[in-house]
Amino acid sequence: MKLVVISAGLGQPSSTRLLGDRLAQATGVEDVQVIELRELAVDIANNLVTGFPGARLRAALEAVEAADGLIAVTPIFTASYSGLFKSFIDVLDNTALVGKPVLIAATGGTARHSLALEHAMRPLFTYLRAVVVPTSVYAATEDWGNDTTLSERIDRAAGELTGLMRALPRRSPEPAVVPFEQQLSAFGLTV
């Protein structure tokens, strides 16, 4: 299985990248590629203006399309995902995430912005027809000091992602329709 982590953190080091790394490690997947959007910012802007991705951006887009699962992590700015994160999503092919399991996560200064995952990120990935795992992970500044609670959320979300990655069929050129019962079984549920 191939897992791709999209990290939209701007700092160096970045708490957003740290959260992405911890989520990836918790999945137990060995083939993990991290895409640091900070390093692709100019390429993303050029693609938005010209319509053509440079070599580094094209490689990142191809990695996302080829992945069996995705972890998308962004800092929260003004109660939503970052502009850099959205710009990268905008340059993806509109079918790149169809049927792909996605774990959404975010970082921020205060827990008050945790609902941005549910009112901004989840609808974005649902619109792109990804299969978004039920548990999202938000890490506010104070969460880094209470590692037990954060670790529990990370483990739960990572388990849901790996369950979906194993249960859903590998992507083919034509998106597969996954029966609802098969999606439920990834979580140990039945109808």
* Main beta-sheet annotation: 7 strands, mixed
> Can you write the helix and strand succession as a string?
EHEHHEEHEHEEHH
- Computed over alpha carbons, the radius of gyration is 16 Å
Overall morphology:
globular
Chain-averaged pLDDT: 90
List unreliable stretches of 5+ residues. none
Please report the number of helical segments. Answer: 7
Molecular structure report:
With 191 residues, the protein is of the alpha/beta class. It contains seven helices and seven strands; from the N terminus they run E-H-E-H-H-E-E-H-E-H-E-E-H-H. Strands 1, 2, 3, 4, 5, 6 and 7 form a seven-stranded mixed beta sheet that branches. Helix 1 crosses helix 6 (147-167) and helix 2 (41-50) crosses helix 4 (83-91).
Task: Name the features.
191 residues, alpha/beta, seven-stranded mixed sheet, 7 helices, 7 strands, 43% helix, globular
Offer a quick outline of the entry:
With 191 residues, the chain is of the alpha/beta class.
Could you give the topology of this structure?
Elements: E1 2-7, H1 15-27, E2 31-36, H2 41-50, H3 55-66, E3 69-77, E4 80-81, H4 83-91, E5 101-108, H5 116-127, E6 131-132, E7 137-140, H6 147-167, H7 180-185
Parallel strand pairs: 1-2, 1-3, 3-5, 5-6, 5-7
Antiparallel strand pairs: 3-4
Helix pairs in contact: 1-6, 2-4
